[in-house]
Specification:
Number of helices: 3
């Protein structure tokens, strides 16, 4: 819902928690999902589902955030 991203970002900042929050206006909740077959047809008609530009930006940001904040160790 519009405005929730700003509230989340504010709460995370106040708590000192690292974060990368971005709201994608005019994108549905399932914008990262690529469906095939009947599900894709329904998504297309209802304008739900995958949004390429937003999904690519989101995945770039997600992977960068994980790369910065999730550290792997080689402690066998």
């Amino acid at each position: 819902m519009p405005g929730h991203a700003a509230r989340l970002e504010s709460a995370l900042t106040a708590a000192g928690i690292p974060h990368d929050v971005k709201e994608y206006p005019d994108t549905p909740h399932s914008f990262l999902n690529r469906h095939e077959g009947k599900a894709h047809a329904v998504d297309t008609v209802l304008r739900l589902g995958y949004r390429r530009d937003a999904a690519e930006d989101a995945w770039t940001r997600i992977l960068a955030f994980f790369g910065d904040h999730l550290h792997q160790t080689n402690d066998g």
